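Open question from group meeting: does this chain pack into something compact, or does most of it stay loose? Before anyone orders reagents, we agreed to write out a predicted structure and look at it together. Recording both the input and the output here so the notebook holds the full record.
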Amino acid sequence: MAVREKVINITIPKGETEGLYTTALEVGFVLGVELHTNHNDIDNFAEYGIYDDSGVSFSKPTHIDHWKRREGAGFDDSYKPLFFNTESKTFTFKAKTSQAVIKSTYFHLILIYKINPESCT
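Structure tokens returned:
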């Protein structure tokens, strides 16, 4: 098994409540994800979600802590599991806060792909 990563970068500009990014994903099987962010305002609820090309939430919007890497686990157990084939579909990634952010706030989502090594030749 070979593993490849793709990073989705979203920024919520200062004074705004939402950032989104829409892209077609490469063909592969996504094992899971991990999220990195500079959002640390515990009084300003932040959530992250993934939507398919019809606008339906593929991965329900949940608190950002649910997307972060888990400590003390092995590699396979440390990221948020998703287990889906991308099939070159278009997905929208959305970060949202309940109140406007007081500084530009980034969200870096790392998708962890399982790929077939024979397909790389």
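Observations to bring back to the group:
The longest helix spans residues 75-78.
The chain has a mean pLDDT of 86.
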